# Entry
Amino acid sequence: MRTQIATLGEFGLIDRLTKSIRLTNETSLKGVGDDAAVLDLGTKKTLVTTDLLLEGIHFDLTYVPLKHLGYKAAVVNFSDIYAMNGRPQQITVSIAISKRFSVEDLEAFYDGIKFACETYGVDLVGGDTSSSMTGFAISITCIGIADGDKIVYRDGAKPTDLLCVSGDLGAAYMGLQLLVREKKVFNGKQQGEVQPDFAGREYLLERQLKPEARKDIVALFAANDILPTSMIDISDGLSSETLHLCKQSNVGCRIFEDRIPIDYQTAAMAETFNMNVTTAALNGGEDYELLFTVPLQMHEKVSLLNGIHIIGHITKPTFGCNLVTRDSQELKLRAQGWNII
Ligand code: ADP
Ligand code: MG
# Structure
């Protein structure tokens, strides 16, 4: 099936994409259908974050199925709210589309967004729809709530604090390398001649194509009475996010290379590609893990938590931001953001 968007028109399209949406949060009073959504965020503080994704700049539809793109576009916004120790409640989704896309394409994209919303308990409450001359553009705004005294900023890290990270790093980047390699192989051959070889690499692809935001880590903090002193989500690589956090907190840090959590598949893929796996973890990006600091006294409590790794500590600003390598060399951390799918 390939229905031209013109057969439905703008309003028919919006209706088709949004008719199945039900509001689930008490904070959502009115969703799609009026001039504006109505929210009741009560006495809590409101968090607002927005992201713009452009075809050819932030994503490449030759690698990414539209359903995955929808899921990822929503999840990266939720991740920003979790990085403030908040809870995402609503999103609005604005899209610009060219004639290249059919109604079914957009339905697939919205299926991904709706699945992310269901998974994370977020309501889709509005958006905007426009045509585009060329590519696909997506802008998602997410609204979240948090108790005023529980919001965690980037600027609260103090010397001697422990620097911690959730999950593992570098897998999304290695997943991207794998997709790029398979595309090259595919382009060089006749269609049907090659099957992509992803066996044993599923985790890497999942981390690249279907990333998750760490809702569970925010819940873990609450359950264990932990309030990080600072926090940021890792969208551009450990190196760049650590530098942001240290700059805003006016501190330095030491990260120990042998403490950086790396999954087995990430390490194996790096070896196959003859790449340094630490470089992938430091600069790769798109892992959407949380990087945070806690006071030194929390050492025991934090080290007992599953899925949290203490990778270093905060120092005075004059020491700078350094990586202590496996052979005990001390290297300056460098920012090298990445931002492509
Ligand atoms: P307006 O002319 O006031 O911008 P629209 O016709 O664009 O109104 O939108 C009508 C309703 O549909 C609004 O509630 C809006 O939030 C919603 N809406 C429009 N486009 C989208 C979209 N792509 N996804 C979700 N909701 C949308
Ligand atoms: Mg509009």
